[in-house]
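Re: that chain you flagged

S.,

Sorry for the slow reply, it's been a week of failed gels. I finally had a moment to sit down with the sequence you sent. For the record, here it is as I used it:
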Amino acid sequence: GKYLSMLLLFLINIMLFQSAMGLGMDAITGEKERGTLASMLLSPIKRREIVFGKLTSLGILTGLSAIIYVISVVIGLKNLSQGAMGGMTSIKFTPVEIIQLLLILIILVYLYVSLVSLVAVYARTQKEAGTYVTPLYILVMLGSIMTMFNAGGDKGLQYFAIPVYNGTVAIQKLLLGELTVAQFGITIGSLALVALVIISLIVKAFNDERVMFNA
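Prediction finished late last night. Pasting the structure tokens below so you have them in one place:
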């Protein structure tokens, strides 16, 4: 069960970031290159409304992946528990745990979308954006890998306040049925706070003509 939880959270985390990365760079940097974003900025629409519209659409599209991953995890574990792996029959998901898993994945989606969007705003081309996003991708991978090598044992609440890493730790604890209410609350709160800070930076960048028109 521990091995399976480590493998699943690694795959889920990486796939979520890849989805946000592919969509975010094209929706912002791609439109800057094509000139469509400049036309939108000249329209009588507030810049923050454009930002929220783009982030919401990107979050929904990437969030669909989160829903699919949750369903896949639940069905996959239940099938394994009923198959040849008799030692996993104790793995069960309550409705509350399913909702918790979905909420963690959704907040991770918006964090990843906002991170990629912030990089994409300052990049001049999609190639440049891909170069800048790569360190973030590596950071997400390291967070998942660190969780795999530090599996088991009680972790203090401070670990659940570390952005990105706390998401993988929380998912791992949840898959093992060990996530507490305090750990869940700190994880959601810290991820949401970081996402809000990044979104405010994106709005600020959208209001900077030099950034948006690659001056």
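What I noticed first: The two ends are 53 Å apart (CA to CA).

Talk soon,
D.
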